[in-house]
Each structure stands twice: as structure tokens, then as C-alpha cells.
Amino acid sequence: MTSNVAFIGLGVMGFPMAGYLADAGHRVTVYNRTVEKAEKWVSEFGGVVASTPSAAADGAEFVFCCVGNDDDLRSVTSGENGAFENMAPGSVFIDHTTTSAEVARDLYKKADRLGFSFIDAPVSGGQAGAENGQLTVMMGGDEEAIARAAPLIDNFAKMQARLGETGSGQLAKMVNQICIAGLVQGLSEALHFAGRAGLDAKAVVDVISKGAAQSWQMDNRAQTMIDGQFEFGFAVEWMRKDLAYVMSEARTNGAHLPVTALVDQFYSEVQALGGNRWDTSSLIAVLNKS
Predict the structure, then answer these.
(1) What is the per-residue pLDDT across 15-58, written as a single tens digit (0 to 9) for each?
(2) φ, ψ dihedrals at 286, nearest 5°
(3) Number of other residues whose CB lies within 10 A of the CB of residue 159
(4) What are phi and psi of 140, to 5 degrees?
(5) 226 and 142 co-located in one domain
(6) Catalytic residues
(7) Which domain holds residue 226?
(8) Bridge partners, 140 (sequence order)
(9) pLDDT tens-digit profile of 184-234?
(10) Domain boundary at 137, 165, 193, which?
């Protein structure tokens, strides 16, 4: 069945995600802060460009969102001309932005008072996952709303799961980012060590990737890390944004994250090297600079 859908935020993730919804036959209205990007999307997929998030939400049964951070999300939802002004009773707002759990809980309460549903649904898989329709979606919110949204999310996801009440999706994404931070730092140190030991690092990776050391990061980033190429995905500035949410939540719940805190500082050193937009595998650059 087709639905009236809005998609707010057409960055490297949102652009292809919205495209999958259009390709599935849904009637899609898009909004992007830079209107040229919205017009480009419509030229490729059809649909309609809206002038504001509020206009995009008009008549939509499902409103998807993928923007930058807490402030961006508040702006397009409850800010002036935000989507919440025009959400229909019984509709569902699905937020794919990586944010704090706090903002997810706050927006859930606002949506509930206004008579519609809010789902926090951050994603993992990066730009390639979005482009290939192979994202993993971690969700928090009411079971009924998630069940209604699930068939639409299936259009761009290989895996989706409800992890609990509102905020659980964002907390699960924090777990994901903790894992990635530690794995990339470990891989960086291993490749740096291999080089200093006089080994052919690519040959070593070819061997150990068939054993217990194997990981997605090794399979997809080791070769480019060895070559000093860091233009393949999630940027350092966004990872630091996500890790700030992690550390803030840890201060609240009492979790001890010494390695994560240390890796966050290593990412600050990458930024000092001019790597704000390098991908997260650029941690090796800090080790190789000396």
C-alpha cells in the first residue's frame, strides 16, 4: 500500500533513503534547508518540494527526518514553521537523526500531547548503507507506531528492531558508536605496529581477516587506512558529535567509558591535523604523524 510521506533532510543519508520510499511507490514531499538539493531530489525521483517542514508535513501519514543534531531536530520539529505544527492526528514522525536520548524523550512527549506518534530511529551503515538500502535501524517508541512504520522503513533497511521505550533507539546508537570507536582505534594501532615492524600490512590483513580479528572495519577500511585515504564515509566531526552524546549519557547513568573518552580525544587530534571531514578511520593518521 502507498502512503503520503514527507522526508525532512536530504543529506548524504536522507537523499537516498527518501529515494527508496519514492521508488516503492509512496507519494513523497521533501524539505531541505538548501532548496537546490530538494529540487535535485525531485528531478531524480519525482514528488514535491515543500518550502518549510510544516508544509512538508501537511497531509502526511508518515514524516521521516534525518538532520544533523539536537538543535537541527528541534528546529525542524517544534521550531517556527516546524513539522509539528502540521502533523495530522494519528500520523507518525520517524526521526533517523543521531541525537541525545533526552531530545527524543522531549519530542515524544510533545508529539503525544498533539495527538501523533514520535519514534527515535537512528541508523547505522553509513552513506554506502543508505545508498544500497542496507541500513540497520535502532528504534525506541510505542510498539503500535513502530509496527505501522516498519513496512516503510523496510524499503531502505536490512535490519530494524525496537529496543524499548522512547530514547532506546538513541541509546542503542550510542552503544554502536562506542563499539566503532574502540574497533577503529585498535585497527589503527595494529596497522601502525605492522608498518613499524617492517611487515607488509596489506598481506597481514589478508591473513588475519580470516580469523578472530576480523571486523567490518577491517574488511572495509584497512586497505584505505594503509594508503592514507580517508574519504570513505562518516566524518570525524559527526563522530565527535555522537561521542559527546555518549559521554553526556554516561555521566547520567554512571557508565565508565575510559577507552571511549580517550578515542574521542584522539579524534580531536585528527581535527587539529585538518581532518574534520576525514572519515573515522583517520585515527591512524595521529599515530603515523610521528
Answers:
(1) 999 999 999 999 999 999 999 999 999 999 999 999 999 999 99
(2) -65, -40
(3) 12
(4) -130, 140
(5) no
(6) 173
(7) 171-288
(8) 120, 164
(9) 999 999 999 999 999 999 999 999 999 999 999 999 999 999 999 999 889
(10) 165
